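Weekend entry, working from home. Most of the wet-lab plans are on hold until the incubator is repaired, so I used the time to fold the two sequences that have been sitting in the queue since the last round of cloning. Logging both here for the record. First:
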Amino acid sequence: MSKPALDKSSIDSLWFNGKPLHFAAWKSKLIIHLKALSEQRALEELQRKREKPLSRFEDLLESQPAMPACPPAGDKEAT
């Protein structure tokens, strides 16, 4: 009997081997997997007649979190 082909989209294939040169490819594969999970979750919410989720699984890996603006150091509140 032949071995079944390993599904590249499965979480089992998302391990990182520790080599810095392979990190970009690993991160890309992980983001693709997280996007698929986000789409699946959005579809499930739609089928249950709920609102679309506000955040996606891959959001923090693709963008910087929103930070509140800091006031300039020279400006002080009037008292």
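Second, folded right after the first finished:
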Amino acid sequence: PLTRSVRFCSLAVSSSGISVGSVSAVSLAKTEHDSRVLLGMSELELQQLALNFGQDKYRGKQLHHILYKMKVRELQDFSQLPLMFRNELQEAGWYVGRSPIYKAVTSADGTVKLLIKLEDNRLVETVGIPNEDEKGSVRLTACVSSQVGCALRCSFCATGKGGFSRNLKSHEIVEQVSPCLCILDFGMTLFVFLLHYCVLAVEETFKRRVTNVVFMGMGEPMLNLKEVLEAHRCLNQDIQIGQRMITISTVGVPNTMRKLASHKLQSTLAVSLHAPNQKLRETIVPSAKSYPLDAIMNDCRHYFMETNRRVSFEYTLL
């Protein structure tokens, strides 16, 4: 089954210049988080940002709460913060950075595919998958993308046919979860609310939030591991989705599974196998030539030994 999911937030990347009337505009606008997108930053980073602007440390905590609990989309709507602080942040180029939903399609089983328009006008897909178990509890899984396009060109995958454009930044991965929070269930009908400010109301009113996140959308997560790990950190620590509710899928990229294992995450590793032998696998997954099945199995065993987490194997029914 598509494993566990998460509840997500959104972001974007800022562009050009900084203009703050005081001496060190650059130092004001910079923290260890080198872009000027707020979403995706940790509480400690936001506290440091507040200090850099001459604010008390607790303002960073307020920022964190507004970003991840209230999910406000515009900096000037952070009404709990002093207007002067908001203006200084804005003048220095800081902004929330949530991307709009370009298109939404709902299937008969309630699954919703969302097309999100990024700041550079590229489009990326995320999918919300609702599921009710035998006990009646509802799970909502967000299937997120890690790249715009994909270079691996697996024969069964439409994404690879369009080629690779670029890696997603961690905040662009995180932001894919927020739209999934807008999936509501009224009896037998699913509606997707595309209003910018509806997320918090949905969560409070319907007690429905993303419970699981799977990195199984567009792109190969292991080819963007740095940003995937940062998105994982944000989902777990800032949005408070349990590590065991997050699954990272891979078709297999040499040396990356061991690198992932070294972080000792408690998340599920899912390997897209698709064939029981090397020869057949190479016809389905061209990149398999550089990463034979024996090597993949050894790295799967290593992942299990390092994390004590079982590895899932995925097949496409061709």
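Plan for Monday: verify the second prediction. The longest strand covers residues 123-132.
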